[in-house]
Amino acid sequence: MKTFLVISGDSITDFDLTAAIAFHKQNKSKATLILTRVPNPIEFGVVITDQEGRISRFLEKPSSSEIFSDTVNTGTYILEPEVLEYLPANIECDFSKDLFPLLLAKDEPMYGYIAQGYWCDVGHLDAYRQAQYDALDGKVQLDYAYKQVSHELWVGQNTYIDQTAVIETPVVIGDNCRIGARVQIEAGTVIGDNVTIGADANLKRPIVWNGAFIGEEVALSACVISRGTRVDRRAQVLEAAVVGSLSTVGEEAQISPGVRVWPSKKIESGAVLNINLIWGNTAQRNLFGQRGVQGLANIDITPEFAVKLGSAYGSTLKPGSKVTVSRDQRNVSRMVTRSLIAGLMSVGIDIQNLDATAIPIARTVIPTMSVAGGIHVRVHPDRPDYILVEFMDAKGINITKALEKKIEGAYFKEDMRRALIHEIGDVSYPSQVMDRYCTAFEKLLHVHTLRNSRAKVVIDYVYAVSGAVLPQMLDKFGADAVVLNASVNKSAMSITDREGLLTQLGHVVEALKANFGVQVSANGEQLILVDESGYPIRGETLTALMVDMILTANPRGTVVVPVHASSAIEQVARRHDGRVIRTKANPTALMEACQKNSNVVLGGSGETGFIFPQLHPGFDAMFCIAKIIEMLTIQERSLAAGAIGIAPCNSQNLYNTLPVDCQRCFDALPWWKLTHAQNLELIDGVKICQPYDDSWLLVLPDASEPLVHLYANSNDREWVDETVRNYRTRVQTFVERQQEYQPAEV
Fold first, then answer.
1. pTM score, whole prediction
2. Where is the Alpha-D-phosphohexomutase alpha/beta/alpha domain (predicted)?
3. Which of 25, 134, 532, 702 could be disulfide-bonded to 707 (CB atoms 3.0-4.6 Å)?
């Protein structure tokens, strides 16, 4: 075996290795290290030699007090084969840490050759960019793969550059590229093969890899755009940012300086990305969706994200303000809650920690605690892999869109204050929280009726925290309650598992001849009833049934439902001279309407739950159970009989979704232009009403996703089917036409 070379793969150099080999042979060295002089050796391994060049000492990445030389190890070695005998077989070893110190201890001849020329250790992204700029400036001798067409301008084959483009040299442009009209390319820019640059783009020293697409009016500044990445119209990627391969940066999005985007990620149109996008799939331009902030647990909603979110929310409040923080019993919710608390404390906010608490309890006590608002963290009711973070105001109502935008502004602009050390927030744990809820709960019930009802109820708590509250209440009122799955489980249940428990609940109700059963979910907010025959009652039927029972007890009362609820609600209300108020299809709108309007006795949505505004402004399945026992007793009725007598039996409510691909077009579409009908309601989306009956169709764009929901309501099933088919086609055609009007991309 002959003398051999070892060369580090992450270095760029033009050293004369022939001279180094001659030095090695002349000194009969066993190992010669190629060295170079650098201004700041702290990041490298320092090598100290004597006057003849023989190595006397190694310092691996020394501190400033240990630096006695500016010659560093470049990772290039000339070795004699016998040095390998010092390395043990089948054991991983390092030249610098293991072999060379051993040779030094054995007094084997080792020399350092100080080479002249360029050397760069591309160990981090700043060094990678600097090496590109150094090559263009001629600081290192490199061979270019492209023809030099003018002074310091290299252009590949079959590349088209519009005559109006302005290029400052030095610049490299690869093969098969297309440079659009009025493109500005500054000196230091590197463009790979098969790259398209749209008109009016501004490139200030970016490094663009093969196959990238850069849209019109895009601004790139000293960043790295990796292979196959798409950067859409008017997007900005700023200094030192890196966008991984096959990613997409949406229109008018901005990637802030130094941010790193891992491969195959999507940045939504208009988003401002201030943190690295590593695990999630998408960076959104909005934090808040239909209700609160939601995302994949420990992927989108991480501890780092939660700390920043807490800081952003706290920065919208006055220093020294107090907020409550509560959660469900899941471990991931505890993790997110603690991170939120850290962020809130860092901006000088005091915490009233309610710990693991059902959300109806949190909403009840917030108005009594002199706090500015509250946060509740839980596993999403419909997605066991998602976390939902809800923000409440001082009344316990979900915060307004205006405050959501204020929090988003602080988050994306990183406009968070920092409290001085003596201003850091405090954490306290208030007592008697459950007692306050129980007191308010009891005041709104006919307790004597409950104690004499002799009702038997089977309640499935689905292993949630509400199971620690309601059994005490029902026992206090003397109700005969059979409890299922009341222990607290720290793992979230899937929808399939919950449906299995619902079937089990029906069997238990039927076997015990109970008056009814109920499954409580969503941390005490939602419920599904099971009648005495074991049949589940949910959705529109449950909403209409609750409205019927409440208005029977409170004639001429007002009920609040979302715009998409069945017209059966109006039919039931007419029987009792009641009034129906329709709201936008989001929980906050429902809560606000229940508080603002007079004589409201119930707010209801089959998907979300029921609001009893006299108790607190949110949804409460626990109070609803007690109220149902009371009303069934007073009204001497059963659930099965009540369900048969309500209008949803004769009403159809059909739900469809239509996917839309263009998010930017989707957000601002003039949906009212879909129809020339006179009877329109524009509460939320576009509701097209028939003039002489309760039939209607609702076109409702989704608040979070690029979807259009179609709801149709009528006693005539054929009308429902035909109308939905008709409007599905009309909506699709309408969206496609709107997209045609968007400016075309190069």
1. 0.74
2. 286-416, 436-534, 539-640
3. 702
